[in-house]
Amino acid sequence: MRLSLVLLLAVGCGGASTSTTPDEPLPEPGAPPLPFEGRGEARLEDLPAVDSPLVALVGGRVMTATGAIHEDGVVVMADGRIQAVGPADAVQVPEGATLVDVEGRVVTPGVIDTHSHMGVYPVPHVRAHSDGNEATSPNTAQVAAADSIWPQDPALQRALAAGVTTIHVLPGSANLFGGRGATLKLHLGRSVSEMRFPAAPDSLKMACGENPKRVYGGRRQFPSTRMGNVSGYRAAFQEAVEYGRSWGEWQHKHRIWQRKRMRYDRDQERRRAAREGEGEMPEGDPVDDPGPEPAPPTRDFAKETLWDVLQGRVLVQMHCYRADEMTRMMELAREFGFRIRSFHHAVEAYKVRDLLAREGVSISTWADWWGFKVEAYDAIPENLALLEEAGVRAIVHSDSNMLVQRLNQEAAKAMWAGRHRGIDISEDAALRWFTTNAAWALGVHEVTGTLEPGKMADVVVWSDDPFSVYTHADLVFVDGLLRYDRAEQPASPPTPENPTTDFEQGQNETEALPILEGGAR
User: Fold this and answer.
1) How far apart are the first and last CA of the chain?
2) What pTM, to 2 d.p., does this model score?
3) pLDDT in tens, 420-470
4) DSSP-based helix, strand, coil % in the chain, nearest 5
5) Could you give all domains of the chain from N- to C-terminal order, each with its CATH number?
């Protein structure tokens, strides 16, 4: 059963009253503030205004990721949003729009990667940059990937050049609870705050299987087995339930105290007025002083993260390979009343695809990575296709600063693997694997992931068929702003409108000294 706090609307300020009317009712005391806030999904009305030009992409093959494909299409963008999409004979291009001829090319939504470690494991890959695993406790739900992200990671620019407009940066998988993930838009900037996806919910990275038991079992610590893993999840969520209950109890006590305080203040005011000849003295004994305001519980950010999961404000992204463990985790989620938003890696998801479809859990996986450890052994290239056929939200992810540069090609491999086995996978379905399905996993599907009027203008113009190995991203728009133009690369010098990391400035293949482990040269 889901346990929840009842947040009552504040309709009174809780201050002292100066009224001397005996029968005037006391105002309803307001609910004291809680540290918990936010929703589990982004909404269009929550997005800030974006100053972007009026641009019309005309003449290309427009793949909307909604089921509609326009062979001679038009996409109109302005003010950070898509204004119009459709066939050329049905869309009126506004006067004053900058026309971009994309004839012979393909227009799609921006690529979304649900599993990235860019910024927390940036390039060059050295120990000094290794900030993705707080491997000091099985439960580090209190940490956040955003606090480790290095915005100058050169991999971010390479991802942008591959058509990627949104990434989801996660802590690593050493722990049962690795910490909060961050959804970023590739507006490359000086800080994580400049790149934050507006209104996107936080996520919680969890991990099952070999990684936690290997990391801590190797130290002769808990957990060292899969049963230890599950015991650790259950204990942590129960603590979170009790933590949330303590805040609910405090809120209830505070409201009672507030009402007593208002009665005391009103009684004191009436007695003062009577002493000064401004009214009659109240009958009976004075109202007792309720004493000091009840102190709130001590905040615990790890428990708070898990409580937010239980309330649906933080989305669970779970590293899990084996079918039996995915099933066990869905049962655990039902036990505590939360939902797993996406299983990541999940190479055995095809074995339980009916259960995943029933539970509404998405799968973020690779096209064909396998065999690098035992739990990754039983993978098949038809995994994504079988999931799609079963009605699961299938997603192709990277988990790599190299693979992120060709997620469209990874989707193509999985699409053709399915077709080879007789599974009818359309191009629109394969496109959704790295656009709208990925947006759903991150809780931002209402604002991005498809080419529809009103949504964020995250758009890629491909040189040709996006499912071809010969295709490049020619133009990449993020919120309607042109953030990458292949014809203008390399962009030199960097500008505020087209920033670039200065980490690689002055370096080239022959002159740059090797960066050794630990950051020494």
Assistant:
1) 57
2) 0.89
3) 999 999 999 999 999 999 999 999 999 999 999 999 999 999 999 999 999
4) 30, 20, 50
5) 46-110+449-504 (2.30.40.10), 111-228+311-447 (3.20.20.140)
